């Protein structure tokens, strides 16, 4: 049996709102949740503009869910009716064109915001101890977003939707033994068809949004448990005042609420400009081929995924038969480098050498073809991002206190990522293929060599208190 119920005493002259809140708080910890998660959550006082993108990501998530609900009211997940239902939304439903363009633009904006959010984490070491789990939850959100965007991309049932899904699903067929059956299971048919559309619709509308919401909640709970990082990479919990609050912290509300509202205003201005004046964004946000109904008998001359997948798609496309020999040489060089420069135990080095030998043998054209290794590199280029907390051995979290040449390493990595993204939207000419292969090698080198280069150079002394200039 529980103890006696104690009701919060409210002054007699309190307003109706205060009385209603007290009544709710007695039965549900509403005020406590608000104070713990935002109102009295102490954040570092030196946040800059890079720290807006987390709240903007939450805004776009809500925007996508709301616009998606309205779209499902008129959309029909049927191969014979899907394209026509989208045209009906655009032409006949009142304000349907606006809701559809908000949803399609929101998908691209979501990835822009998330990529910038991840870039901030990379610059300031937000994935370092004790925030490894925050990074992993965030990576899980990123993976689910990619799946959500892929499943949603098929739904308009346009030419690029149909053939893009056909190409991506066929990639799974390159996996030995289980590949053909796996592709068949994903499609639900031998080709992309009505069965594929129905299951993709179910994943896009119900399954993945629930997973994303759960991961977002876990991401925020983990963040508020260990506290936010900051541009200096210093733990503000190490310096507390008499009340137990961080000396270098300030309550999130109202100090960061006002800044978030300003960021939201700027974002919505840009978002509205795109929605009203350039929703296709030159074919990057909405491909021109997708305004044609899907035709299984007519293949578009150039099939490419939407821009936010193209950096990883370029890695897949760069993996040609000739490139396999370069990869074998790179793996051999990396194993030798680990033997010479690593302080790993002798048994671990033996294991690395064996794994390297197995990979080299597997890359021989007589064993596994380049298509399979393209899929492996495609997946590895995404998954390797999750390993950052264990690859970065730098004594300083933030880029502010690392050697200046580290900034150029980050800039080179960013240029490689953007180059791969651009080349993925273009036809694969011989010159573009070579450039994408070089960018692929540099992309993986950034991560695989990070345990060494992140510790090199002369580091600047990290202050014990935050560097902050009031403004």
From TrEMBL:
<feature type="transmembrane region" description="Helical">
    <location>
        <begin position="408"/>
        <end position="425"/>
    </location>
</feature>
<comment type="subunit">
    <text>The main subunits of complex b-c1 are: cytochrome b, cytochrome c1 and the Rieske protein.</text>
</comment>
<keyword id="KW-0472">Membrane</keyword>
<feature type="domain" description="Cytochrome b/b6 N-terminal region profile">
    <location>
        <begin position="20"/>
        <end position="232"/>
    </location>
</feature>
<keyword id="KW-0812">Transmembrane</keyword>
<keyword id="KW-0349">Heme</keyword>
<dbReference type="InterPro" id="IPR036150">
    <property type="entry name" value="Cyt_b/b6_C_sf"/>
</dbReference>
<feature type="transmembrane region" description="Helical">
    <location>
        <begin position="370"/>
        <end position="388"/>
    </location>
</feature>
<dbReference type="InterPro" id="IPR005797">
    <property type="entry name" value="Cyt_b/b6_N"/>
</dbReference>
<dbReference type="Pfam" id="PF00032">
    <property type="entry name" value="Cytochrom_B_C"/>
</dbReference>
<feature type="transmembrane region" description="Helical">
    <location>
        <begin position="261"/>
        <end position="279"/>
    </location>
</feature>
<feature type="transmembrane region" description="Helical">
    <location>
        <begin position="323"/>
        <end position="340"/>
    </location>
</feature>
<keyword id="KW-0408">Iron</keyword>
<dbReference type="Pfam" id="PF00033">
    <property type="entry name" value="Cytochrome_B"/>
</dbReference>
<dbReference type="InterPro" id="IPR016174">
    <property type="entry name" value="Di-haem_cyt_TM"/>
</dbReference>
<comment type="similarity">
    <text>Belongs to the cytochrome b family.</text>
</comment>
<feature type="transmembrane region" description="Helical">
    <location>
        <begin position="98"/>
        <end position="118"/>
    </location>
</feature>
<feature type="transmembrane region" description="Helical">
    <location>
        <begin position="431"/>
        <end position="450"/>
    </location>
</feature>
<keyword id="KW-0249">Electron transport</keyword>
<keyword id="KW-0679">Respiratory chain</keyword>
<keyword id="KW-0813">Transport</keyword>
<feature type="domain" description="Cytochrome b/b6 C-terminal region profile">
    <location>
        <begin position="242"/>
        <end position="465"/>
    </location>
</feature>
<feature type="transmembrane region" description="Helical">
    <location>
        <begin position="200"/>
        <end position="223"/>
    </location>
</feature>
<feature type="transmembrane region" description="Helical">
    <location>
        <begin position="347"/>
        <end position="364"/>
    </location>
</feature>
<feature type="transmembrane region" description="Helical">
    <location>
        <begin position="167"/>
        <end position="188"/>
    </location>
</feature>
<feature type="transmembrane region" description="Helical">
    <location>
        <begin position="49"/>
        <end position="71"/>
    </location>
</feature>
<dbReference type="InterPro" id="IPR048259">
    <property type="entry name" value="Cytochrome_b_N_euk/bac"/>
</dbReference>
<dbReference type="InterPro" id="IPR005798">
    <property type="entry name" value="Cyt_b/b6_C"/>
</dbReference>
<keyword id="KW-0479">Metal-binding</keyword>
<feature type="transmembrane region" description="Helical">
    <location>
        <begin position="133"/>
        <end position="155"/>
    </location>
</feature>
<comment type="function">
    <text>Component of the ubiquinol-cytochrome c reductase complex (complex III or cytochrome b-c1 complex), which is a respiratory chain that generates an electrochemical potential coupled to ATP synthesis.</text>
</comment>
<dbReference type="InterPro" id="IPR027387">
    <property type="entry name" value="Cytb/b6-like_sf"/>
</dbReference>
<keyword id="KW-1133">Transmembrane helix</keyword>
<dbReference type="InterPro" id="IPR030689">
    <property type="entry name" value="Cytochrome_b"/>
</dbReference>
<protein>
    <recommendedName>
        <fullName>Cytochrome b</fullName>
    </recommendedName>
</protein>
